[in-house]
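Record type: monomer structure entry
Structure origin: computed from sequence
Chain ID: A
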Amino acid sequence: MISQILSLLSLLHHNQSVTRKQIMTTCGISERSAYRYVTRLSEANIPIYFDSASRGYRLTRALSLSAEYLSVSDILLIRTALKLLRSRLGDSYAASIHNIETLLDRMFPGASQAGLEPPTGLVEPSDGRQDLSEIVSYCCILQAMNLGKKVRLKIRDDGGEPKTATIARPTLRYDNEWLIRDLNGASITEIPLSSVADLQLI
């Protein structure tokens, strides 16, 4: 489904109007699926609408995504997902992924500074079954360090509700596993990256 949605986004981006038949042909999907994918994009706040004059779907060119719609954490999550997706697809859809990354870089130049290579100890296995949360959290911490941002963490607690913690000056240290450190206080707090359930830059 992800590859078809990327193809649909690329098709809409490069054409003034796209008919349902064009979507079906380009994405290799049924008419019902074409309608469902358009609905998914609309629900995700992508400014897409049906133009009765051209009998096709169009993007609202006057609108653009901004920090009003997506946070830095959201953008970093998208960029990390695109990078991991590219590694799975090889050369397939490489142009579409590049176009989306270029668009994100133009809209959010500050959100593309962190290196997004999978770090030591978090290399994705070839079977693709690993939970990628640690890789995304790692990249978000790097971005927070680059931008001088605090991070708010939800930390998994065995048998209980996730705990919340705010890290004022986050950094990373590797000691058999990746640890998040707060350099702001008198005492150093270390939180295993593997225990992070959610992370937001603030």
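Annotation 1: The mean pLDDT is 77.
Annotation 2: The chain has two domains: 2-59, 65-202.
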